[in-house]
Amino acid sequence: MSDVLLSKLSTELADLDGEIGQIDQQISQLRRKKSELTQKRQAIERKIELKTNEDSDVVTDRWDRDGFPWSDEATKILKEQFHLEKFRPLQRAAINAVMSKEDAVVILSTGGGKSLCYQLPALLANGLALVVSPLISLVEDQILQLRSLGIDSSSLNANTSKEEAKRVEDAITNKDSKFRLLYVTPEKLAKSKKMMNKLEKSLSVGFLKLIAIDEVHCCSQWGHDFRTDYSFLNVLKRQFKGVPILGLTATATSNVLDDVKDMLGIQAALTFRAGFNRSNLKYKVVQKPGSEDECTEEIAKTIKRDFAGQTGIIYCLSRNDCEKVAKALKSHGIKAKHYHAYMEPVDRSGAHQGWISGKIQVIVATVAFGMGIDKPNVRFVIHHSLPKSIENYYQESGRAGRDGQPATCILYYRLADIFKQSSMVQQERTGIQNLYNMVRYAADSSTCRRVKLAEHFEEAWEPSWCQKQCDTCENGNGFVGTSSKESTDVSEAAKTTVRIIEEHLNSAKDGSGRITGNKLVELLTKKLKGSRNREFCEKLIVNLLLEGYLQEDFHYTVYSVISYVVIGSKWRVYNGKDAIKMRHVEESKSRKRKASSSVEEEDVMVLD
Ligand code: ADP
Ligand code: MG
Ligand code: ZN
Hints:
Layout: H1 3-52, H2 56-63, H3 71-80, H4 91-99, E1 104-107, H5 116-124, E2 128-132, H6 136-148, E3 152-156, H7 162-172, E4 179-184, H8 186-191, H9 193-204, E5 208-213, H10 235-239, E6 245-249, H11 254-264, E7 270-273, E8 281-287, H12 292-306, E9 311-315, H13 319-331, E10 336-339, H14 345-357, E11 362-365, E12 378-383, H15 390-397, E13 407-413, H16 415-425, H17 431-443, H18 449-456, H19 471-474, E14 488-489, H20 491-507, H21 517-527, H22 534-547, E15 550-556, E16 560-567, H23 569-572, E17 581-582, E18 605-606
The structure holds adenosine-5'-diphosphate, magnesium ion and zinc ion.
Residues 84, 87-88, 91, 108, 110-116, 374 line the site of adenosine-5'-diphosphate.
């Protein structure tokens, strides 16, 4: 083959690779778009359905009361067996529903008392409640607690001894036994035919009374926490006919809820949802300084000034960040301790106990910390980094102020953190979409934070709910509508941005001239010097990403995933004439600090 022909062919190959690459990008963009539209569609369907169905408040009212045949007995068990004064919101409704053999889903925040919703019915019905739970560690605590109350319960997992397994199997198939609660993981159910067989037997002797599924949002692919093993649970309704199913979760949008009900085959299940607005929480978003030292210094100042002697949580993205931030806070004289999954169990439980008892003021943790924790007087929750979804943010920040007293939730936000988080969540089915919704929350300094949350959870909203208990309302911006006149034409700056990306790409012959988000901000700021500052450039790039003019493109190295910014599908169909608009270009009052002129660390997220 001649050299000329060879070189011609390899050029052709490179061209084709380029085109194929573009198509791949378009496909993934279209996929994302499709799932976005499907979600919207479901939301609308849901709204229509709500109009035609009964109001959920009315449903709750009907169930959350005394006067059922078992009501007196239920109250007696609550007091005498559980040593509790009175029911918390929704507990009675859930108990009445399952005792009436209705399927139900309870949405109640962490620490709200979901466990009692299945524990008490087991005692009331003199039978077995099967509890499906994703976390063995949480279950162990519960079982110890139940046993200390004299309630026979157990879990079956890989560590269970043969004797205990045998004892449980006998107990659940004997209708006169005093055994009440059996905890299993979804895998255990899916894998163990023997287990399923014993449960069928339990049902046939009339002993199995209830199936509870904790963290039920894990059933949904739309959720933020989908687990494949939860798919097996769809057999339960068919296999155990007549046994009510009770799903429990702290967060679920109506999409997720519908999906969960479909998956479990309990489409007609009653839904009990606690009030969504946490009126004692103050929400704030703060522009995060570019350098780590400045950031921890600012956090330390805030804690000393506003939360002296008060307990709090700081959430970080990685174990490394946890350790660094805790160390920095200690150097500022704050009693802080890190907490993450890679610590020795004794150290971890030491940190946990120290914080619960008040010896440690601030726990600096990855989001794994908090599942099942029960500390009512947390006065502040600070997010050192961007959470991966609004669901996560609502749940994590919601660990503040469980005692009903005022508490503050502060989110530190900056552009560079988007790319750290995106490279971690990009593999999840709706990971990027969920993250970008979170970015929309953080980047919007002109809408009440509560309005943003309510929109996301599709909750009806009263402006009076906020009472200036968020940064935007405090600054008088809270209720500017989306049709705000303050939007500015940024088309020229957008074109400059795209030109920078193209120039960068062409600068390397082999097409390796990809650009990271942080680098792009740097180059754009240089180019626009004099007319626009760095804060503007960051905002512009965030906007272009959220709108789809730009998009992230992920590349794998051996140890990490790197996010690059490339031209998005919307730019390819952009005619170059229509104005591209952006709201609130001038520095907002809530952002006291100018975005720092540099970002210290590299923008690569090393996977833990
Ligand atoms: P969740 O699963 O919703 O996060 P839990 O079921 O673990 O919450 O309960 C959290 C805490 O609240 C537990 O310590 C529990 O004993 C307590 N609790 C539950 N119900 C009541 C009640 N009716 N009155 C007082 N305390 C309760
Ligand atoms: Mg729980
Ligand atoms: Zn507000």
